[in-house]
Amino acid sequence: MSPDHLSTTFAALADPTRRAILARLAAGEASVTELGAPFNMSLPAISKHLKVLERARLIERGREAQWRPCRLAAAPLRDVDDWLRHYRRFWEENFDRLGDYLKDLQAKEKRHGRKKRK
Amino acid sequence: MSPDHLSTTFAALADPTRRAILARLAAGEASVTELGAPFNMSLPAISKHLKVLERARLIERGREAQWRPCRLAAAPLRDVDDWLRHYRRFWEENFDRLGDYLKDLQAKEKRHGRKKRK
């Protein structure tokens, strides 16, 4: 089975350093050196992570020869969001059930309070 | 760096068969045999995928010795959703920009139509 886009995206996201790079790029474009600074990592190690992110189209890199700034490319994340949409009802339902439970609890508390005051 | 929960989740999702298993389980719990049927895969191969999903807490399995039904456990997907929230503005902004562009286009069309009628 050839790797599909969604699998490539998920594989690229399955690393805390790569997610930290994306978090940094969410604040604005940055050079490889700037990206590497907070991780105390060699430039080749950072470059390897950037290549994985670039292959997954999660980042784009400028064409300038000296300073090739990286920027976030969010299209694959939007695809993850679309995929996730089908499952959202599972935790939203759970949340609704918790809401119902809390409402019941409040109603009981109220009834209990009223009885006490009588 | 020890693998964190989010990395384990993303790694488990980086496979089309495992995502298809989750999609099937979104419709209700199923046995290993039922899950294996549509993939034309050996039971050991399916079991291996289920183990990855179970380790990532994306599925839970019943305790019955003979028939251990699998069911979806959505908590890790909710965590992915939380993570994704920080990036949502990127495609929503793009969408807003497209919306603005279309509004401009409509306004221009209207003005153009009015001029023609004069």
Provide a descriptive summary of the structure in words.
Two copies of one chain form a homodimer. Chain A is mainly α and about 120 residues long. The first copy, chain A, is about 70% helix and about 5% strand. Chain A contains five helices and two strands, in the order ααααββα. Chain A has a two-stranded antiparallel sheet with strand order 1-2. The termini of chain A are far apart. The interface of A and B includes residues 77, 84 and 87 of A.
SSE series of chain A:
HHHHEEH
The unreliable regions of chain A are: none
DSSP strand count of chain A: 2
Q: Helix count of chain A, per DSSP?
A: 5
- Whole-Å distance between the termini of chain A? 72 Å
What does the overall shape of chain A look like? elongated
Multimeric state of these chains? homodimer
List keywords for this structure.
two-stranded antiparallel ribbon, 118 residues, mainly alpha, homodimer, 2 strands, elongated
Write the layout of secondary structure elements.
2 copies of one chain form a homodimer.
Chain A: H1 5-13, H2 16-25, H3 32-36, H4 43-55, E1 59-61, E2 70-72, H5 75-117
Helix pairs in contact in A: 1-5
Task: Describe the structure concisely for a colleague.
The structure is a homodimer of 118-residue chains. The first copy, chain A, contains five helices and two strands; from the N terminus they run ααααββα.
